[in-house]
Amino acid sequence: MKKKSNKYSETLQQIRAIVNDPSYEIAEEDKNFIYTNEARGVRLQLDYLKAEVKMQKQGVDHAIVVFGSARIVEFDVAIKALKKIEKELENSPHSEALLIALKKAESRVRKSHYYDEARKFGQLVGQSGKTPEDTHVTVMTGGGPGIMEAANRGASDVGAKSIGLNIELSHEQFPNPYITPELCFQFRYFAMRKLHFMQRAKALVVFPGGFGTLDELFEVLTLIQTKKTPPIPVILLGKEYWNRMIDFEFLQEEDAIAPHDLDIVMYVDNAEEAWHAIIQWHKKNKTPLF
To answer: What distance, in Å, lies between the first and last C-alpha atoms of the chain?
Structure first.
């Protein structure tokens, strides 16, 4: 009897060892497995699929993508920060840190009009639908602050829905409050995020920005140049900024790009010009948005 009891106890222990081992856990619930290098393909697929299914259900057909700096803020915010630094300088007029901060604050005040233009542009796209619920043509941004916030805010101003594609970063990044909740997505991989930017894009409007904005801009230019994606209007808003930032004509003179590559890009200075250029481009190319 004792042998049977011992045998039963050993069997139970063995079964417990089996069911408690990670190998026995259902694959989709095994985080240690899901986050291995070997399972990266599954994670990439899920990163793509969740947003795709949601956007299909929301009826999003065409996206007007807006890129731009996260550091550009509206005038009231920029001027308040500037006045604060100016006041601090009264007490410490030779502070090197404050003088550097003053230059940055003055620059943000100068660039604050881009926030206004991005907000106006969001309004124009938002008003283009048959109803506020119409998502046939929808503003899409990176979901963060600055220019992204302004474009989502403009759509929200007129009661229209808009999309935000956030990305998981080493530092916390929260979505701006103007994105439609059911159209706000967080991605792990830049590649899947970029794929969604382009998959429905019928125009790209790029406001002044830094590394992230340039990365996204040149990704799109390369895809169009190499015919890996259908051509779309690429609008650079802020002629003075972009002419100083990138000398495309120099690239053409150096035979780094072909003369017709210059035709991919258009320059405008305000929201109305950008929206008009998009509408006219699609009329000319017989690819109407509506």
So the answer is: 83
